[in-house]
Structures
1.
Amino acid sequence: MPDGAIRYLSQAVQLVPEDAQSHYKLAEALAQQKQPGQAVEHYTKAVSIDPKVDTSPLLNHLLAMYYADARQFDKATSHEEKALELARAAGYETLTKEFEKWLKVYKQLSSSPQ
């Protein structure tokens, strides 16, 4: 997503801070632009306003990768499980297979001593 989308969505959340969809879309844009810290912030805000807004397998996968990089494997596992659930529900077979592999890795890392 171009930086223009991030600017537009940032303005949208400033104008209507309780709009879950705007926070969620901004989280997606930020995650795709490799700004995971801000993406987590807007993701958390979005799902606290409306948990049903959480529909993106890709966003959950990107957040899982962010948490894994931060060595927070329990959170990585949780987001990868959500990504897998959403991918299965949408019928994304290729993504489902990929997310299953990542989930296995995160679970192994989560249960191993740090």
2.
Amino acid sequence: MLAIAADPDQRPQSAAEFSTALARQFVDGSQPSVVQAAPVLAVMDFHNITDDGSVAWLGSGLAETLTTDLKRLKLVRVVSRRARPRSGATDGLPQAGHSQFDRIGQRTRCAVARAG
């Protein structure tokens, strides 16, 4: 019996019936599992460590791509890049590390370091 069953006849018809059905689910004394909240992550822009200012846009582009990919995984809750301050402040979020990129010829190298 499900409280949210599509068929109304399959739902508990009263609070007492719901309570009894719920109690039957844990007759062995086990407790319902606790759902852990997903960690929160804010992806900051990558720092341009090249001498080439024409590739500075890559820092925010890489961060945006990483943010999108992390959101698809649904393993962490990613704070929107638009919601966080652009001044470099973390808005109270713990610092997890830093990221940077460099260009070597036609290749771009990204480095992400975890703090601690």
